[in-house]
Design goal:
It is a single chain. This protein has 141 residues and is an alpha+beta fold. The chain has a single domain, classed as Thiol Ester Dehydrase, Chain A (Roll). Helix content is 18%, strand content 40%. It has two helices and six strands, in the order αββαββββ. Strands 1-2-4-5-6-3 form a six-stranded antiparallel β-sheet, covered by helices on one side.
Length: 141
């Protein structure tokens, strides 16, 4: 398990773009599970949408990508390297994410090479699938 302060040491992202609050599972099984608590204080809710706040889908994808970056940076060969969100395929949004939700972010790394990786991510709220996607990562050389 990683705390927010430990995550801030791994990811270059900072407020307001750090979208992972806690890592719940990080093992040698090529899987990572993290959590994002969605609050009304998120800056994106000012414009998306003021009368009915909904977390933008692209930010759910970004949260999944950040989760995958934490996993990749946890591996000895990739510690300290910048990991970039390079693409998303097979993206499906299934349910709205709103203030008060706890977003559970799961990534399984399918391929990991010297300069790139692919993972499949799923995001849940209350055990309901809200988003899934195949995510491509580029790793700085």
């Amino acid at each position: 398990m990683l705390t927010i302060n430990e995550i801030k040491e791994i990811l270059p992202h900072q407020y307001p773009f750090l979208l992972v609050d806690k890592v719940l599972h990080l093992g040698d099984d090529k899987k990572i599970i993290a959590k994002k608590n969605v609050t009304i204080n998120e800056p994106f809710f000012q414009g998306h949408f003021p009368t009915e706040p909904v977390m933008p889908g692209v930010l759910i994808l970004e949260a999944l990508a950040q989760t995958g970056c934490i996993y990749i940076n946890s591996k000895e060969d990739f510690k300290g390297k910048l990991i970039f969100f390079a693409g998303a395929d097979k993206v499906k949004f299934r349910k709205k994410v709103v203030p008060g939700d706890s977003l559970i972010l799961e990534i399984e790394i399918l391929k990991l090479k010297k300069f790139a990786g692919i993972g499949f991510g799923k995001a849940y709220v209350d055990d309901e699938l809200v988003c899934e996607a195949q995510i491509t990562f580029m790793i700085e050389s």
